[in-house]
Amino acid sequence: MSDGSLKKFSIRMAYSELHDGGDVVRWSKLIWFSQNIPKHAFLLWLAIQCKLPTQDKIRRWGNYDLMVCLLCYSDLDSHDHLFFNCSYTSKFWAKVMHKLKMDNSNTDWEGVVGAFVDSYNGSSVGSITRRLCLAASVYLVWQERNNRLFKDERRSVDDFFKCFCDTIKMRLASLKMKWSKAVCDTEKIWDIKLNVISG
Ligand SMILES: [Zn+2]
After folding, report:
1. For the segment 81-127, what is each residue's pLDDT rounded down to a tens digit?
2. Is the Cα dihedral 12, 84, 125, 173 positive or negative?
3. Where are the domains of the chain?
4. Cα 3 to averaged position of ligand 1 atoms, centre (Å)
5. Taking every annotated instance into account, which residue ranges of this chain make up the domain Reverse transcriptase zinc-binding (predicted)?
6. CB 109 within 8 A of CB 11
7. In this predicted model, what pLDDT tens digit does every residue of 135-174 receive, in sequence order?
């Protein structure tokens, strides 16, 4: 953190660090990098600040009955529940973490995002893929929730995960990369041909 001490990650703390001129670089690299998908990055940025209008937020504006989560129908629609805690998103997220070969023991928003913040966030293909996956997951979960709410459209976890994989593959395939073993591994894991430049 900005005072050099190690503290347990928390969104609120990170946000206040950011606005106090704290550890900006560490945070911004998770979200803002040249290979990102801008609309995904922007939504992740809002989500990290807990600015998405889930029902727990809307309720503060008036005394409404809380809406049930439209992904699992077994809990209330809230920011803490929706990402990574809901049974629907948990199943999806387990597939994402398996694909990334990452530890899936974090089951809440702060734990998951904290693990990504604490990972290497440089220019390697693995790092780029990891960050693309986090932002795409948050974006697509929010989109799925809104499609169910406003359009009455729903996808199974498997269809949803396929859409996620296609999104990541399309982005990775659009990038130019120098050859490395990690690039070959990424081609195998995602079953794609990457745009490898020589030299
Ligand atoms: Zn749910």
Report:
1. 898 889 999 999 999 999 999 988 887 888 888 888 888 878 899 99
2. negative
3. 11-51+87-197
4. 37
5. 9-93
6. yes
7. 999 999 999 999 999 999 999 999 999 999 999 999 999 9
